[in-house]
Specification:
The complex is a heterodimer. Helix content of chain A is about 80%, strand content about 5%. Chain A is mainly alpha-helical. Chain A has a two-stranded antiparallel ribbon with strand order 1-2. In chain A, a hairpin with a 2-residue loop joins strand 1 and strand 2. Chain A is elongated. Chain A starts with a helix and ends in a 5-residue tail after the last helix. The model of chain A has no long low-confidence stretch (mean pLDDT about 90). Chain B has one domain: Sodium/glucose cotransporter. Helices cover about 70% and strands about 0% of the residues of chain B. In chain B, strands 1-2 form a two-stranded antiparallel ribbon. Classes of the chains: A mainly alpha, B mainly alpha. The interface between A and B is large, with 42 and 49 residues.
Chain lengths: ~80, ~575
Amino acid sequence: MKQNSAKVYWKKNIYYLFILLSIWFLVSYGAGILFKDELNKVKIAGFKLGFWFAQQGAMYVFVVLIFVYVRLMNKLDKKYGYDD
Amino acid sequence: MMISIFFLNLIGVQQWTYILVGITFSLYIGIAIWSRANSTKDFYVAGGGISPLANGMATAADWMSAASFISMAGIISFAGYDGAVYLMGWTGGYVLLALLLAPYLRKFGKFTVPDFIGDRYYSKTARLVAVFCALLVSFTYVAGQMRGVGIVFSRFLEVDINTGVIIGMLIVLFYAVLGGMKGITYTQVAQYCVLIFAFMVPAIFISFQMTGNPIPQLGFGSTLADGSGTYLLDKLDGLSTQLGFSEYTQGSKSMIDVFAITLALMVGTAGLPHVIVRFFTVKNVKDARKSAGIALLLIVILYTTAPAVAVFARTNLIETVSNKNYSSVPQWFKKWESTGLITFTDKNNDGLIQYLANKDTNELIVDNDIMVLANPEIAKLPNWVIALVAAGGLAAALSTAAGLLLVISASVSHDLIKKIINPSISEKNELIAARLASIGAVCVAGYFGINPPGFVAAVVALAFGLAAASFFPAIILGIFYKRMNKEGAVAGMLVGTITMLLYMIKYKLGWFDEVLPNKSEWWFGISPEGFGSVAMTLNFIVSIVIMKFTPKPPNEVQDMVELIRIPSGVGNAINH
């Protein structure tokens, strides 16, 4: 039983990691590098969007991603009784 | 009010610098005495009970070096869009740290990175390779920091660089030897406050001056304050192309190289031992995750301001000097010219400063570092703000140097002496060994600071590339791939590290050839700075292939991996 719940917990963790790291990749390597020229055609205030993602936006998303992960994992820990 | 402003401006930059540096240094020393270490656990991991906020602040200060504080904004202001490799590269790694490394390493609960590698791969060879990599990475990095301390001292206090290095050595020696990780942690908390204040104050002033918006992150996307309605970035793009540079928001590196450098810096960040070890100092897994988030938030405050400073400074510089008469340049220009950081040669003898992209007609060479150091003067800010930048630069350099020295001393006293040479050493003697090792490390670092080896310029790239190519795959596979065994991990680390070193020596230092090979010879068009990502990939491949042909790890190691994956039952960092 204990063994099994550890497995389910780990699977769920991997699932979260997959989602969050996909976003991590999309905002930095995607929006900031690979698709920056397309995004640069869009302008918000003085910022070309691709440039903004590379020098501002990606970093804001990074911070949010970590705090989302903290929340998700705290909930998951509680559900499986791993929160001491 | 008026009188106090008058009084504030009466004191010169020099006096202000002495006052601010004096106050901050006494603060650091005071903290070190108050928080000195009494046990090896205090010394290595600060007793393991640091709060997530304090650890986040300490991690941020530990992480942001003299390079982040002094050089980064300047590098970006000359690189334009390409500067994003540093911005994303040096922050994105924290996502990897928080999600893939910190929680599990905290659960593992020992003192150092080689501890993890040695136990997970049940082998002294693996531990030795890890110790070697940790020392290599930390020494290359710390030499640059000591040099940074010397440079800041020499520029602001008018002592020579070597005297500056020695003063820096003595200060770091005092609080690292006395306080160990515990002393370092609390001084770093203070240093974070000093450095972020020192970075933000001039940025806010200048942002308001140029755009009317006091928030730099928004200011550099706003219109100019002169009422013309032109966006600042459009203006800078225009100025840049007029002078023959590529458009500021476009950059000039190839896409694959930008991709590779960003990846190498991200992964390198996550693999740096002095950053990883900070997550051993908190109470449990939950706190480890949280403090990674806080650390990144605190880092991002500076990292999102830096590109704004870069744009302000670049625009200011071009407007102040381009096509202006040399005889009428402002005083700061002459001052920095005397330090050799700005050089002007009037090639066509017309008395005007031609600042152009074309190397043959360009008459002005400006060092990267000027952009942060001289920015307050260029923007005509008060003397105390200028002095503040000196105190901030020193805080940044000292905090990083101290963190690195601790990794070096722990590698020697714990990983080498306690775990390999003399396992029966008593706790008291291990603590003495740790202190002696940090004294030794400071002396070596100081020596390199005074006699910088020729490869100092390559140092940062090398340190990150090595961290990416050596530790990162071994740790990730150790946590996420239960089947990974010692043969695979050791082979991977060796192949990754050696490939990285060879590529660096060939394409960055040029030691294999008469002249430095041309860019066109780079593998896949990837620069030495970005090669860490290739070496890392190679490490992963070699590890997995070798693992397939060698026996499974023993059962107790597989059980240990199961245990690391579950956050509960951490207890304190175990003294084993």
